[in-house]
Amino acid sequence: MTTGTEIINQFEKFCDPSLAESWDHVGLQIGNPDKPVTRIMTTLDVRPEVVDEAIERQVDFIFAHHPVMFHPAKDLDTRNPQNAMYAKILNNGITVYAAHTNLDSVNGGMNDWLADQLQLQDTVPLVEKDIDPATGIPRGMGRIGQLQHAMNVDEFADYCLKVFNINGLRLIAKKGDTRQIKRVAVLGGSGSEFYQTAVDKHADAYVTGDVSYHVAHDILANGLVVVDPGHHIECVAVKGLHQLLEEWKQKNNWSVDIIETSINTEPFRFVTK
C-alpha cells in the first residue's frame, strides 16, 4: 500500500516547496494525502474536464503543475463551476497536489524540460535563486544556453512552432531584423517581467508566455527578440512529472499506476485570416 504522503515526501526531497515564490500556493491542494493511492494522473491544469477524466479513469491522486486553489474560495456555492469542481473532487475521494514555481526553479524540472525541447546546450538558470546545498549547483527560474546551430529570426520562430507542437505564436522583433539567434533564454509560463535579465545576460532571443502590449514595446526598444508561444507549452510537465514518478515507483516499489491526462487544457485557439 502506498499513500499520498509517501509520494509527496519523495517528491519534496527532489523539489522543496521552499523554492516556490512567496505569492505561490504549492503543495497539497485538496483531499487527504494519508489515504492509500492506487492511480496517479499527471496534468498541467486541474479543470472540470480533467476531474471528470480522473473520475472516469479511477484516479485517486492528481499531480498538477498549476495550483487548483490559486485564489481562496470566498464561499462554497456549487453553482460556481470552480466550487462545483472542488465538491466533485472531495465527493470522489481524490487528492490533488501541485508543484508550481518550485518545479520551475528546481534543477531537472520544468525549465530544464523546456530547454531540452529547444535542445539548448550549456544551460544555467536565467534568474538565479540560490545554490542547491546538496550539489553546489545554482537553482532558479528559466534557463539560458546555446542553440546547436544559429538561425535567423524567422527560422527560430518556425523552430519554436515545431518543437512546442503549436499552431501559432507571437513574435516580438523589429521589422527586417537580420540577426542570427544563437544564445536563447526560456522561462515557462508568464516570464515577461524577466526580459531585462535576458538582455543583461546577452540572450539573442527569449522564449516566454503572456507578454503584454506595453511590455512588448519595451522589449522592442531594448532590441531583444521574444517568442511568445503561450503559457500552455508548460504541458511538458505532464510527461516530465510522469517520468519522475515512474522512476520513484521503481525505486520505492510503489504499488500504483501512473497515467497522463489526455485533456488539452489550452484555453486559446488561433484564428487566422
UniProtKB/TrEMBL annotation:
<dbReference type="InterPro" id="IPR036069">
    <property type="entry name" value="DUF34/NIF3_sf"/>
</dbReference>
<dbReference type="InterPro" id="IPR002678">
    <property type="entry name" value="DUF34/NIF3"/>
</dbReference>
<protein>
    <recommendedName>
        <fullName>GTP cyclohydrolase 1 type 2 homolog</fullName>
    </recommendedName>
</protein>
<comment type="subunit">
    <text>Homohexamer.</text>
</comment>
<dbReference type="Pfam" id="PF01784">
    <property type="entry name" value="DUF34_NIF3"/>
</dbReference>
<comment type="similarity">
    <text>Belongs to the GTP cyclohydrolase I type 2/NIF3 family.</text>
</comment>
<keyword id="KW-0479">Metal-binding</keyword>
